[in-house]
């Protein structure tokens, strides 16, 4: 039984693939530093992430599968599921060794599982774009918070940049404590201090002292509109929760307490 230790990055995973072919020994477990090791194992190899090795593996994959399949790999990686590294490793190995593309071979459990994970992450990407609720700060910056199940926020940035190109904005993942800031020119990754006591970094909602002077008015108008279009006789809570997952409600303007 072979164990590989890597740094839990995508480049680290690709480097592990390179090392496996170079060493001609393939891992049964992919672990990160500090993870509990199996009780019995034959060999322990520590992978040192190397961008050039990772790039060589990626170029090799480009010759074996389509661009959409490569996108499936990177997007599935963002699921952050416990065994996603080993699953992607097996997929890459099969893709490299197979005489033809494996991407539509859904009889293979790894191919099928990866496709299912991709679908879930992509669904989260769509939800983030659907349920964004920006709040305008006093300095003109628009702030929106999320708490997605998967790390799908990076997949939405091009959409936000195109859609809100004339506005400064921050989109922030409250669960993973990082986000993106657009300054009308470029997008940069940001992260606030974990020990920050700022209310908007705890609740995801701007304090009134930080809001633009008209923000409360627009929020009230939006709540009024949301309430006005609701047809009580056609309410279907079960369908509502399916289409609009409850985990997003705490950051939706229309789901906050009614104005007095």
Notes on the protein architecture:
The protein is an alpha/beta fold and 260 residues long. It folds into 2 domains: 2-125, no CATH class; 131-255, no CATH class. The protein is 39% helix and 13% strand. The protein contains 8 helices and 8 strands; from the N terminus they run βαββααααββαβββαα. The strands form 2 sheets. It has a 5-stranded mixed beta sheet with strand order 4-5-6-7-8, with no helix packed on it. Helix 1 (10-23) crosses helix 2 (51-62). The longest helix has 22 residues, at 109-130. It is elongated and about 65 Å long. Residues 84-254 form the DUF4130 domain. InterPro entries: DNA_repair_put, DUF4130. This is DUF4130 domain-containing protein. It comes from Bacteroides faecis. It holds the Pfam family DUF4130.
